[in-house]
Design brief:
The radius of gyration is 21 Å and the shape is elongated. Strands 7-6-5-1-8 form a 5-stranded antiparallel β-sheet, with helices on one face. Strands 2-3-4 form a 3-stranded antiparallel β-sheet, with no helix packed on it. It contains 2 helices and 8 strands, in the order βββββββααβ. Strand 5 and strand 6 form a beta hairpin. Helix 1 runs antiparallel to helix 2. With 156 residues, the protein is an alpha+beta fold.
């Protein structure tokens, strides 16, 4: 995860329905970006943005207007619900297949592995969201500035 502090000098080409926009920061334009959840920053605002890959706007994990709270690109529970539905769609096929091919012991093992995988997905999603939240909330504190007051980029 890579955190950057971005000051939006100018925001233009806004498509509010999708949350797409372009901006200029420190004289450098950036075109066709999306923070997720239809968030479009105001000109003059400063955001902390969490990237999966540094500077890659398609990997935005979450963002935070330094004057407000953290906003995730995709709501945690909606992403988790999609993964759980996938497990419930394909998991029973493996359990039934193992019951037919290997008997009750293999079906019991397949069921246990299925439930462990489901628990892992839930715990990983919660852990990742907490890590993004902590990292974004830490931005804006004095530890992220050098001695001249310039912004520092940090990687978590």
């Amino acid at each position: 995860m890579h955190i950057e502090r971005i000051y939006f000098d100018e925001v233009f080409d806004v498509h509010a329905a999708r949350g797409d926009f372009s901006f200029r920061s420190q004289g450098h334009p950036q075109y066709g970006v999306n923070l997720g959840n239809r968030v479009v920053p105001r000109a003059g605002s400063t955001y902390a943005v969490a990237f999966g890959k540094p500077g890659d706007w398609s990997t935005v994990l979450g963002s935070r207007d330094l004057a407000s709270s953290v906003v995730f690109r995709q709501l945690t529970w909606s992403a988790l619900l999609i993964q759980v539905l996938d497990f419930f769609l394909f998991g029973p096929l493996f359990v039934i297949g193992s019951l037919l091919l290997g008997g009750s012991w293999l079906a019991a093992v397949a069921t246990a592995l299925f439930l462990l995988a489901l628990a892992y997905v839930v715990l990983r999603a919660v852990r990742d969201d907490r890590a993004v939240t902590r990292a974004l909330l830490a931005v804006g504190q004095d530890e992220h500035r050098d001695k001249d007051g310039a912004d520092l980029h940090c990687t978590v």
